[in-house]
Amino acid sequence: MHDRTRAAVAGHAGEHATARELLGHEEAKVRRAAFASLVRLGKVRASDIEAALADPSPAVRRSVCELAPKLPRTDFAQLLLDSDESVVEAACFAVGEQADTGAVEALMRIVAEHSDPLCRESAIAALGSIGDRRAVPALVAALDDRPQIRRRIVVALAAFEGPEVEAALERALEDHDWQVRQAAEDVTGRHSPG
C-alpha cells in the first residue's frame, strides 16, 4: 500500500499512530493526508497545526486552512501574506470560518490591493462572515471591481447596516451586471429599477 493511501486510510481505520508517523513524510501529499486523518480522528495537536502552517509545501498549508472549521482556534492570519495565492485564498476562508477579528485589517488590504481576484473574493467573503464594522468602507470601495467581486460584496454587505451600506446596495440594484442586480434584490428584498 502506498504511503499516501496508508495515511488516508488511517483516518478511517482509527490508526492515529500511523497518521502521526506519516506527518513527517518526504512527500507533501502524504503529509497532507496524514494531517487530515489526525483531524478526522480528533487527534491533531497544536504542534501538528503549527508545523503544517509552516510546511514548505503550499498544498499542505492550503489543506490546513481548508480544515479550519474542524480545528481549534488557530492563527491562520499569518498565511494571509503567503507567497502562494492559493494559500492566501484558503487562509481568507479559514479566518472567516473562525471569525478572527484580528485578521480584519489584513483582509481589507487583500480586498484593496491583491492582484488575484480569487483572493479578493475570498477576503470579501471572510469579512462578511466576521461581520466587523471596520470592513464596510473597504467593501464599499471595492464596488468598482469585476462582476463576481461585486456580487460577493453585495452578499457580504448583508451582514451590516447603516446609510453607507444602504447606498451601496442601492447602487448594486442598478449595476450593469444582472447577477449583481439579482444579488442586491435578494439581499434587499427590492427590485432593481431596470
Secondary structure elements and pairings:
Layout: H1 3-13, H2 16-22, H3 28-41, H4 46-53, H5 58-66, H6 85-97, H7 104-113, H8 117-130, H9 136-141, H10 147-157, H11 163-173, H12 178-188
Helix pairs in contact: 1-2, 1-3, 2-3, 3-5, 5-6, 6-8, 7-8, 8-10, 10-11, 10-12, 11-12
Structural write-up:
- The longest helix has 14 residues, at 28-41.
- This protein starts with a helix and ends in a 6-residue tail after the last helix.
- The protein has two domains: 1-74, no CATH class; 77-194, Leucine-rich Repeat Variant.
- The chain is elongated, with a radius of gyration of 20 Å.
- α7 (104-113) packs antiparallel against α8 (117-130) and α11 packs across α12 (178-188).
- Helix content is 64%, strand content 0%.
- It has helices at 3-13, 16-22, 28-41, 46-53, 58-66, 85-97, 104-113, 117-130, 136-141, 147-157, 163-173, 178-188.
- The protein contains twelve helices and no strands.
- The chain has 194 residues and is an all-alpha fold.
Essential attributes:
2 domains, mainly alpha, 194 residues, Leucine-rich Repeat Variant
Oligomer: single chain
Quickly give the CATH architecture of the largest domain: Alpha Horseshoe
Number of domains: 2
Distance separating the two termini? 61 Å
**Main beta sheet, described?**
none
How many strand units? 0
Shape: elongated
Rg, Cα atoms, Å:
20 Å
Enter the CATH topology name of the largest domain: Leucine-rich Repeat Variant
The low-confidence runs, each spanning 5 or more residues with pLDDT under 50, are none
Number of helices in the DSSP assignment: 12
